[in-house]
Specification:
Chains A, B: It is an enzyme of class 6 (ligase). 2 copies of one chain form a homodimer. By secondary structure, chain A is α+β, with helices and mostly antiparallel strands. Helices cover about 35% and strands about 30% of the residues of chain A.
């Protein structure tokens, strides 16, 4: 199959999936009756149930099993917080405007489309030109605003709709801005991630955890990005649900007590070096990846393993899942290491979970801006002796020498780092005086040896005070769900043997939006009453079900609910027993009405497999 | 106890509750390290768990047991939707500004504070004046902007902080405004309620439900109100979680098939007439209230009953819960009836759930604005014969008579309602001509009998097309949780017999943030391992627990977790058996380690009561 055919197949497959999803209301373009808003989608009833199930499993797998501290912070966030985090200044995309109509485009998208289009469709493209365009695609994310502008001008790229010329690129902040309170003087933003709500609460959470490290806090909630021009359907949207973990750890000890529980897992990893040297992703034991230093530390490795388990238990195909390490140019300067869980779908490899060691960056940024020390303490069993720098300005002499400027000179002397102070001390001892820069006065002053005492003293310390590192697994819930839809979808021939293909979502029971259906075989009052009694017993134990008492044929009713991914169908065909049919195998068993709720519950809770059920109740051929 | 004492007691009680809530991180003022933002709060770990539990129970009690269609729509909403719903024009509070500093205040709050203050603290107040101020308080919500301004001026009310004079009142829209996309030409708002997302999806949801009425859709999500000056702590906030139900029903048949399941419930109701005549709320059977016409219809009554069950099962005290009917002046003009579930707490009676019959208002508003018919169809078993008005303008004659204005005259004739048309017909038959108002021309014209044919014809109709009514129970989740905190809180003497009082949150197991604790009695490796094994078995069945292996005394560990409302404490004091202590009774039982998870699960799931547990395992005295 050539590349063009493959693209066509992928698009046909996507079309079939998306068509089923929209027709069965897994999702709905938001505000559809008003022609919608790009990048906003509703979860309809089955989609909403899938989302609830994914989040419930996330809570079980991470919050409960790892004893995390879950919090829930507002979306509305005052500017000062996002100024400290860097979002106000740096959370931007470069945008160009149609110079006549004012329509906005993402600058990198236009350049990318131009290059791809030329490469795919221009038969006269020279080898040199093709190599140049491929190079542009490779370095696209590294281009500065000026470089991007120059390329757009250089290639003569114009506005796609009007062919008008374009403005120079300029940064557009992706946060939705608003104003808090009636005065109009308190700018705020809708949070672009949930993490900041956790960071600003570090002090309280550390206290809640008994002032002990490591611990993790978690948050599930909405986040917002005012995309310039949303693309890729459900994958790039303006409002989405994030589930984020901030695991706080001693930077000197990033071991993890439960690492051995995941260390033997093997899955596709794509280390930085393999990417740079053009190799493919390969299966690696996570234990070996950590031992070999490919993954920076045990805690990061532990979370990669836990994310692998989470995604595959949800129903993500392990052969279309890889952990890709960020290249040096993708990673923030402060990050120690970063891996994305990428899932392959018809759009290509999609980043669904980011797992980053962000070092102490966030806590330091909020400490600096707020003045509240977001630090941890390690109490020593025995006090330790340390050498401490002591700087004592002699205020009387400094006052005589500098009069009104005395305060600034004193502060500058006290603010010296160890190296600078020891050099000053040496100069004063050698020459009796030294030139000294006072930034706040913007000039050098002459310091004499009687103006300041500098020494190193031995002190006893009872504890170590440090800023914890944070390891952050961040889950894009909507993206995971979309990939899950593609990985779960398949078709099979209809019953009548014709060309008809039936759609099936083969969701695992924990994900399935509805756990079972209840069908009276034929329309009759007795069966209907049995069906209602079963429905009530299912609701009582928390099982979602769909009851269908229409006279439609059983085959059609199966087909309808296979399309919703319902794993079990209960058909009432006697007053005392029913058949249960499993969606993927289409095998059936017969059991008593009174046993239905417990059998369904054990299967859908994952306590028993369909194999276990078959072992207990022999198959039944209808 | 006099009124002042009662207020003092209430405030002391509230202080004790809020102090415990903040100290144990049930909630945290958001962005505290930056001095916070009024009206924004975080749920800390136990608060977040309580919220999850309340929402899970809401889903079980409403969505699952009533087979509702749950949806999940974005918070960002384009202006057109909120223009149609009326929020852009009418979702306002009246505000006054300090004329020098620009500080904003809610006009009604200032007037209310002034009246209350005078009534409570001015010993020289005349009886006449007191009566006047009491009257102002009673009619406060009905005052227009001008009336409010006149009273503020008349009483000489100034800015509370500066004593500067105040501006006239003017409306301030309470929605957080933002802009969608980069162009700045698409205004949007953060939704003030979740309901609109459901209304705009009516057509799809009706189809999903097999084009059948009645059905209900539900949504849980964040909503936003940019309050002018938030007060009352957790009760009036700028961002909050709503859980809303929109039950769509045939306006001609508001019966409910399951009404008999709630009709014998009896609880405090406060009908409109009792409020007006100064009587107190009284216990009424909901069945009788519907039969007597106090509650407008069965469906409304059914939901009132279900809300009563929901709140009391959560732990709300039934004696501090009442359903208050809206007075005529509180209710929107289109509403058929409206009842608030009000819960009494230290702030007084707080509206926590609104249950309104909103008639066809919302669907009609969106039909008008979007042009998409949000209607239901009732197919008749047999076609029905109906009389239909037929108006046929004779275009030739009208063209001759009105030339360029013909089109407007034709449209005006066709738009006539039945009554107007039949009157015109009678006049034309009697006099041969008639004066006829054409609004679009802004004048009367003379219509002659040859210009229009008006008749009634018999037609066969196969279906009835109508706009459904909607009954909306809307839950303020944060308010319910706050009231639950107050209703669950109590103190008891400490173990040492001194003055120390221990705080307890007596949450029902389904609400409790942590279901049980695991304590090794003394610090030893064997007990610690047993504790960890128990913890693992609890996590596996989804039970939240807290393990405490510090050497703190058991009494202190009990006290710490009573304050978090943990219902069961497991103490490991042998290698094979443990004691389990129940929080409120302080009774203990002894069971085998292997039985722990199942006993705790049955109790916390509500399958067995503590009484059941005691019956099976005799109490143990420690």
């Amino acid at each position: 199959m050539n590349a063009a055919q493959e693209i066509q197949n992928r698009e046909a497959f996507r079309h079939a999936v998306v068509n089923t999803l929209e027709r069965r209301l897994f999702y709905i373009p938001s505000f559809k009756i008003y022609r919608g808003v790009a990048g906003l989608y509703d979860y309809g009833p089955p989609g909403c149930a899938v989302k609830s199930n994914v989040l419930a499993f996330w809570r079980q797998h991470f919050v409960l099993e790892e004893s995390m501290l879950e919090v829930d912070c507002p979306c509305v966030t005052p500017e000062v917080v996002l100024k400290a985090s860097g979002h106000v200044d740096k959370f931007t995309d470069l945008m160009v405007k149609d110079e006549k109509t004012g329509t906005c485009y993402r600058a990198d998208h236009l350049l990318k489309d131009y290059c791809k289009d030329k490469l795919e469709k221009d038969p006269n493209l020279s080898a040199v030109k093709a190599a140049e365009l491929s190079h542009v695609l490779a370095i696209l994310d590294d281009l500065s605003s000026d470089e991007l502008g120059a390329k757009i001008k250089g290639y003569g790229i114009t506005a796609p709709d009007t062919k008008n010329s374009l403005s120079d690129p300029y940064p557009f902040n992706l946060m939705f801005q608003t104003s808090i309170g009636p005065s109009g003087v308190s700018p705020g933003y809708m949070r672009p991630e949930t993490a900041q709500g956790i960071f600003v609460n570090f002090k309280d959470l550390y206290y809640y955890n008994g002032n002990k490290l490591p611990f993790a806090a978690a948050q599930i909630g909405q986040a917002f990005r005012n995309e310039i021009s949303p693309r890729q359907g459900l994958l790039r949207v303006r409002e989405f649900t994030l589930a984020e973990i901030e695991h706080f750890v001693d930077p000197d000890d990033k071991s993890h007590p439960k690492f051995s529980e995941v260390s033997t897992l093997e899955f596709f990893m794509f280390p930085r070096e393999d990417q740079v040297s053009g190799r493919a992703a390969r299966r690696i034991h996570i234990g070996e990846a950590v031992a070999a230093g490919i993954v920076n530390n045990e805690t990061l490795g532990y979370f990669i393993g836990r994310v692998y388990l989470f995604l595959t238990q949800l129903g993500i195909d392990k052969d279309r899942l890889r952990f890709r390490q960020h290249l040096a140019n993708e990673m923030a300067h402060y990050a120690a290491d970063c891996w994305d869980a990428e899932i392959e779908c018809s759009y290509g490899w999609i980043e669904c979970v980011g797992i980053a060691d962000r070092s102490a960056y966030d806590l330091r940024a909020h400490t600096d801006k707020s003045g509240v020390a977001l630090v941890a303490h390690e109490k020593f069993a025995e006090p330790r002796e340390v050498q401490k720098l002591v700087i004592t300005p002699v205020k009387k002499e400094l006052g005589l020498a500098f009069k009104g400027s005395q305060k600034m000179v004193v502060e500058a002397l006290e603010a010296m780092e160890e190296k600078e102070a020891m050099e000053l001390k040496a100069t004063l001892e050698a020459k009796g005086e030294a030139e000294f820069r006072v930034c706040t006065l913007d000039k050098d002053v002459t310091i004499k040896s009687n103006m300041v005492l500098i020494s190193k003293e031995k002190k006893k310390e009872h504890q170590r005070v440090f800023t914890p590192s944070v390891i952050e697994p961040s889950f894009g819930i909507g993206r995971i769900i979309y990939c899950l839809y593609e990985h779960s979808f398949y078709t099979r021939p209809g019953r009548d043997g014709g060309d008809e293909q039936l759609n099936v979502f083969g969701f695992p029971p924990i994900v399935a939006p509805i756990k079972c259906t209840v069908f009276p075989l034929v329309q009759n009052q007795q069966y209907e009453e049995v069906a209602k009694r079963i429905a009530k017993s299912l609701a009582a134990v928390g099982i979602t079900y769909k009851i269908d008492i229409t006279g439609t044929s059983i085959g059609k009713r199966y087909a309808r609910t296979d399309e919703l991914g319902v794993p079990l169908a209960i058909t009432v065909d006697t007053a005392t027993t029913v058949t249960i049919r499993e969606r993927d195998s289409k095998q059936q068993i017969r059991i008593n009405v009174d046993e239905v709720a417990s059998v369904v519950k054990e299967f859908t809770d994952g306590v028993s497999t369909w194999g276990d059920v078959l072992w207990k109740y022999p198959t039944h051929s209808s």
